[in-house]
Write a structure and sequence with these properties.
Elements lengths: L4 H6 L1 H16 L1 E2 L9 H7 L10 E2 L2 E2 L5 H18 L3 E3 L5 H12 L5 E5 L16 H4 L1 E5 L1 E3 L4 E2 L1 H11 L3 E5 L9 H11 L2 E5 L4 H5 L13 E5 L10 E5 L3 H15 L5 H15 L2 H22 L13 E5 H5 L3 H10 L2 E2 L1 E3 L13 E5 L1 H5 L4 H16 L4 H17 L9
Parallel strand pairs: 1-14, 5-6, 5-9, 9-10, 10-11
Antiparallel strand pairs: 2-3, 4-12, 7-8, 11-12, 13-16, 15-16
Helix pairs in contact: 3-11, 4-11, 5-10, 7-8, 12-16, 16-17
The protein binds pyridoxal-5'-phosphate (PLP).
């Protein structure tokens, strides 16, 4: 439990919310696939003196003085990021994954240009041109889909036809609700045919790529990767863009981030990113990344044993999508609510070509990065999946839910949230 000594003395109202959140995180199982627990070292950096400093520009080229230590620190962050993702250039300043994507779009395109990205109900992200986003008013977004939602295979033939028809400037590979590996070589081949940039938005699988358990799109010639640093990479909330080798692209990306769309970089968060990259370069991060996938596979087995339909037919990564309405008659919203009651947090999610509505869809999405950080392995992943199915089958049985709630608390007590990952 953190002390929050100064907040406690000075601001009781906010202190109470901090204590509440710590307790919530301690006694519940986090299965939201985009969430994780940052180490205390990362959190120390977030709370550090670097929050006081204005550092507009880049190391060695700033608009204000007093940059001796910010320059050293940001340079270390950049070097570590390059090593983690096998990149020649890195921009560690984007404030989040969405900001990274917006900067990337403006760096590589003119208004009106086209992006060919994953259909949103097939796993693509809001920032890939959802109608409600500002970016959708500036650029033109066209979509590819899966060929078979029960294997997750992308329809590469259709992707190629779309590319030839729409002449996109960017072909975007990446997702927030898709559980298979992509054939990056195919993407690259099609992009070369139509002269498009290849960008991978790896926001969800950063940790898996850094840990070497998912393919690195740069090994297949991709130009750029955008990402978050707070999901499976386990760093502070933030974004990043890495460039494989092209200096011209790197210059365009840097200009698009600053002054294109951001002001002063959040130096305290960049320091925390550097600390997290240091943790991810530690040999035990590879074991962490491997365990994330093993745990997801263990959950897949349980859901299949209970004949619950999994989108993409299962998982190669850290997440699963289950059609709980189709298989158990429980809607995504009902499932989210009842699992929350027993202390298991996840989110409702649309399934491919959703027959219901976005507000109450057929599916749930869940993943293993956070529970794996707590040290849980296949045995616990299996028990958790069993508990989830028991909950869904007993959603109106208060006595049964109370028993499950106790089992969840016991598991949390056995696997406390760790304070450090390198020892
Ligand atoms: C999470 C996510 C983002 C957005 O990241 P934020 O930090 O929330 O802005 C962008 N793209 C994908 C694929 C994501 O999963």
């Amino acid at each position: 439990m953190s002390e929050y000594k100064y907040i406690k003395d000075q601001d009781e109202e906010i202190y109470q919310t901090l204590v509440g959140e710590e307790e919530r995180e301690r006694v519940g199982i986090e299965l939201i696939p985009s969430e994780n627990y940052a180490s205390l070292a990362v959190r120390e950096a977030c709370g550090s003196v670097f929050t006081n400093k204005y550092s507009e520009g880049y190391p060695g080229r700033r608009y204000y003085g007093g940059q001796e230590f910010t320059d050293q620190m940001e340079t270390i962050a950049i070097e570590r990021a390059k090593k983690l993702f096998k990149a020649e250039y890195a921009n560690v300043q984007p404030l989040g994954g969405a900001a990274a994507n917006v900067a990337m779009y403006f760096a590589l395109m003119e208004p009106g240009d086209t992006v060919l990205g994953m259909d949103l109900s097939h796993g693509g992200h809001l920032t890939h041109g959802h109608p409600t986003t500002a970016i959708n008013k500036v650029f033109n977004f066209v979509r590819y889909k899966m060929k078979d939602v029960d294997t997750g295979e992308i329809d590469y033939e259709h992707l190629r036809e779309m590319a030839i028809e729409h002449k996109p400037k960017i072909i975007l590979a990446g997702f927030s609700a898709y559980s298979r590996e992509l054939d990056y070589a195919k993407f690259k081949e099609i992009a070369d045919e139509v002269g498009a940039y290849t960008v991978a938005d790896i926001a969800h699988i950063t940790g898996l790529i850094a840990g070497g358990v998912a393919k690195n799109p740069f090994d297949y010639g991709f130009d750029v990767m955008t990402m978050t640093t707070h999901k499976s990479l386990r760093g502070p909330r933030g974004g990043m863009i890495v460039i494989r080798e092209d200096e011209e692209i790197a210059k365009k990306i840097n200009k698009a981030v600053f002054p294109g769309m951001q002001g002063g970089p959040h130096m305290h968060i960049i320091a925390a990113k550097a600390v997290a990259f240091g943790e991810a370069l530690h040999p035990n991060f590879k074991l962490y990344a491997e365990q994330i996938v093993k745990n997801a596979k263990a959950m897949e087995v349980v859901f299949k044993d209970h004949e619950v339909r999994l989108l993409c037919g299962g998982t190669d990564n850290h997440l699963l999508l289950a059609d709980v309405y189709g298989s158990l008659g429980v809607t995504g919203q009902e499932a989210e609510t009842v699992l929350d009651e027993v202390g298991i947090t996840l989110n409702k999610n649309m399934i491919a070509d959703e027959p219901r509505s976005a507000l109450d869809p057929s599916g749930i999405r869940f993943g293993t990065p956070a529970m794996t950080t707590r040290g849980m392995k296949e045995e616990e992943a299996t028990s958790l999946a069993e508990l989830m199915i028991r909950t869904l089958k007993n959603k109106d049985n208060e006595a049964e839910k109370e028993k499950i709630r106790q089992a969840v608390v016991a598991l949390c007590e056995k696997f406390p949230v760790p304070e450090t990952f390198v020892d």
